[in-house]
Amino acid sequence: MRALVVEDDPRIAADLRHALAAAGFRVETVGDGETAWFRGGTEDYDLIVLDLGLPRIDGLSVLKRWRAEGCDSPVLILTARGAWTERVEGIDAGADDYLPKPFRMEELVARARALVRRKGGRADTRLQLGRLGLDLSRMQATLDGVPVALSPLEFRLIAHLAAHRDRVVPATELLEHLYGDDDAREANALEAVIARLRRKLGAGVIATRRGFGYMLVGT
């Protein structure tokens, strides 16, 4: 799962990155509205956490631009502003949820997971795909009911394939969700993760569609 955190306070941004990464998200952060508008409008995110009090372009204007341009990523507004009129304005602009500061990280993570599940049409945190089971809240995989130890990177990959199991997922999309802008965004790095998953879950779980990408099969 790929998340964009838009927060101009470096301390809060670092705390959000840490909490969401621990919950299985691949997190990217930006600190101003103009950069956020570009990134959210040109990249595919499973979740955006958006502060309203941003430099250059305020968060509410960024959100309105995203929605007008067709960006449908779930957006959780995060702000120190607590007036009910501002909450209504944020929801009317296209926000999916609203969390005023100060807040508990546990609540933010729970809301973030709920938004991702809602977008995927799921109410439960657990998925059962034939022999393969995934608990998204605990980041736990099972095969025939037996726990399988996966690294955070491996779990993010299999969870993304599970969320899009009705289609072939391009390698470029998987690289973006796994690595973001890191230097490790190379095809051989992705193939290495998939090879490890096949050893742990079975060779027939992830199929390669040459020239197109990967998808879950045999589950």
TrEMBL record:
SMART domains: REC, Trans_reg_C. It comes from the Bacteria. The modification 4-aspartylphosphate is found at D51. Gene3D superfamilies: 3.40.50.2300, 6.10.250.690, Winged helix-like DNA-binding domain superfamily/Winged helix DNA-binding domain. Residues 2-116 form the Response regulatory domain. The keyword DNA-binding applies. Transmembrane segments: none annotated. InterPro entries: CheY-like_superfamily, OmpR/PhoB-type_DNA-bd, Sig_transdc_resp-reg_receiver, WalR-like, WH-like_DNA-bd_sf. Keywords: DNA-binding, Phosphoprotein. Coiled coil: none annotated. Residues 124-218 bind DNA. PROSITE patterns: OMPR_PHOB, RESPONSE_REGULATORY. Residues 124-218 form the OmpR/PhoB-type domain. This is Response regulator transcription factor. It comes from Paracoccus spongiarum.
